[in-house]
Amino acid sequence: MARVWDWFVYDKAxxxxxxxxxxxxxxxxxxxxxxxxxxxxxxxxxAPLSESDRLVEVDEHxxxxxxxxxxxxxxxxxxxFQALPSYESAQWDVVNLVxxxxxxxxPAQFSLRVEGDNWHWHNHLLHEExxxxxxxxxxxxxxxxxxxxxxxxxxxxxxxxxxxxxxxxQLCFANDWSLDEKIGLPFWQIxxxxxxxVEPMMQAxxxxxxxxxxxxxxxxxxxxxxxxxxxxxxxxxxxxxKQRLADRLPYxxxxxxxxxxFVRIERQTITRLPQSGAILFGIHTYQNLLAxxxxxxxxxxxxxxxxxxxxxxxxxxxxMTALMPALLSYLSDRHHSK
Length: 338
Ligand code: HEM
Fold this sequence. Notes:
Blueprint: H1 6-15, E1 47-48, H2 62-75, H3 77-80, E2 81-83, H4 88-105, E3 110-115, E4 118-123, E5 128-133, H5 144-149, E6 155-160, E7 165-170, H6 179-182, H7 187-190, H8 199-211, E8 217-226, H9 238-248, H10 257-260, E9 262-272, E10 279-289, H11 290-293, H12 297-309, H13 312-317, H14 324-337
Antiparallel strand pairs: 1-8, 2-7, 3-4, 4-5, 6-7, 6-10, 8-9, 9-10
The chain binds protoporphyrin IX containing FE.
């Protein structure tokens, strides 16, 4: 196993610059993105991805995460993948972009040979090869977005039109939402009800989505703290996760909380697809045990600063209200004992 991931360790050292504005030095056991600064930030936090930045990231969790995704898609295909009719060309845009991106950044793991409309794809990590006709849905085993989503750890969502309506998605690892709830809704309604404190940010985000230039990618992060590290937190799990939080709450003392909670970070990318003009929203979910992040005093200090300045309505939205007393006391004890 170790040999398989040698390339990853090497590669990661070279590519931390992607997260440089949001992350600090980390070891492989720490989150690769750490979007906590001096205080709660109410800006949308989008930054351009450069030519040398990856659109999709492959890390040491690749195999188990792809396996989990495929299991979910087998069990409940129409819950985890949905597409409105007549957006097939946007789905092919995603195939084009993602396969070229993977093979450009990791040619030893992924290779793509394009001969006219005949495409040959070799995923060396999964030991899978396929030849298909670009643009011909019948030549792939699933819809194009569903197929390409099974090659990457990211959730992939497509938005289209002036109001950025959600028209298709493969969404397995969402944090408290699902395609059933959001498909067919425009950007603004996707985010409703909007916590008043972030309303200016969401207005800016709406304009940003409208004016997104073609062929360019941007990225941002989102954070939350969870009582479970299960990747699939789609809405069907919300009742069970709420129950788990209620059950664990009495045990979340400053002594135990570090082993009970997980910091969950989403690296989100936003790309206007050059051919169809649709928008691809990619979400890569990273998570780590709170105690592991809090092993770094600088990270402890920054989490304490951000959590203690996050408006209560935002904490409620993120489902963190009940955790806060124990969480803040844990972080401040650790910070002061260093
Ligand atoms: C610049 C772009 C964007 C910004 C600034 C933004 C910002 C936010 C913020 C502030 C929240 C509140 C929750 C939190 O912070 O934890 C949120 C939640 C959410 N965002 Fe976005 N977002 C953006 C793009 C998108 C896109 C393109 C989608 C497409 C599907 C999306 C889907 C969602 C969903 C589904 C939620 C959860 C809503 C719910 O609880 O029902 N976001 N976003």
